């Protein structure tokens, strides 16, 4: 089946490079100047410098041409996905869509699959998520991802259509678990970055990571997720990667907060809006997500790291 990747950022470009090994791929970038530059120089200088784009990868800013493919992978950041899907529904509806972003929409609280389904009601929608840095995928390094699709048959088809020798896909029908694992691990990465950035130590980070995982499970199971999904690549796997690597933008954003340094506002940091959306959801559902709430407080600048840590440490002692 023909494949197009919509979104010419780091992840979209990396996926297009990897999938080009399997057959013809089209990469759509919204800015014509960026598409021209990438097509001519065979590199995505802004988002994935140093990675040569294969000669047979088609790069275009023409969405009509790109959306002609059978499978459309959407690598647009979560907070832009709803508007993109609404504006471009005529190109997307009725197609097979694979959301490749992680997070919860700040206004609706919905994840990527729900957001696409709202705007494209006749599309068949899946989610590709899990521990992976764009640069690793583009270099062809071994990577394991989760392909989540409520339709088991379509999920199996996509698993086989999108796997490559280096990109090993596991499938699940638990879209809720895969969505919330991928969304909330970015929140925990901000918390872990802030902990290290403020000099609170690696022991503290291990506690934040572990208790953060408990929060991810608490919210996801309440929303109907399967526990195994949270323990898998899209949950625990991505949590470990993102909370321990300075390659992660969410972790680096947390580091900057902890060090009281400025951070590039143009950078995609999915955990910031997701912390706010998840904190609101927890309040509505009447469950306790103290680390998520603390990250929302940091993002909204209502708290500094010392206050956030005080709030976590002063809670009543409880069973694990
Ligand atoms: N970079 C990674 O290593 C990585 C790995 C796994 C998953 N992801 C996920 O992929 C998603 C995208 O991240 P990224 O790293 O590619 O971000 P990025 O900042 O590198 O690129 C974002 C891209 O989206 C485009 N874009 C923004 N708004 C748009 C809109 N309204 N319409 C069309 N295009 C728009 C930008 O032009 C840019 O090309 C995120 O949800 C992220 O969590 C990223
Ligand atoms: O750079 P980040 O923090 O968006 O993380 C990238 C991926 O989500 C890691 O799996």
UniProtKB/TrEMBL annotation:
Reactions catalysed according to its record: sn-glycerol 3-phosphate + NADP(+) = dihydroxyacetone phosphate + NADPH + H(+); sn-glycerol 3-phosphate + NAD(+) = dihydroxyacetone phosphate + NADH + H(+)
PROSITE patterns associated with the record: NAD_G3PDH
Domain Glycerol-3-phosphate dehydrogenase NAD-dependent C-terminal: 174-309
Domain Glycerol-3-phosphate dehydrogenase NAD-dependent N-terminal: 3-152
Family matches, as Pfam families: NAD_Gly3P_dh_C (PF07479), NAD_Gly3P_dh_N (PF01210)
Keywords: Cytoplasm, Lipid biosynthesis, Lipid metabolism, NAD, NADP, Nucleotide-binding, Oxidoreductase, Phospholipid biosynthesis, Phospholipid metabolism
EC number: 1.1.1.94
Gene3D superfamilies with a match to the protein in the record: N-(1-d-carboxylethyl)-l-norvaline Dehydrogenase, domain 2 (1.10.1040.10), NAD(P)-binding Rossmann-like Domain (3.40.50.720)
General function of this protein: Catalyzes the reduction of the glycolytic intermediate dihydroxyacetone phosphate (DHAP) to sn-glycerol 3-phosphate (G3P), the key precursor for phospholipid synthesis.
Family: Belongs to the NAD-dependent glycerol-3-phosphate dehydrogenase family.
PANTHER family, per database record: GLYCEROL-3-PHOSPHATE DEHYDROGENASE, GLYCEROL-3-PHOSPHATE DEHYDROGENASE [NAD(+)] 2, CHLOROPLASTIC
HAMAP family: NAD_Glyc3P_dehydrog
Protein name: Glycerol-3-phosphate dehydrogenase [NAD(P)+]
Species in which this protein is naturally found: Roseobacter sinensis
Gene that encodes it: gpsA
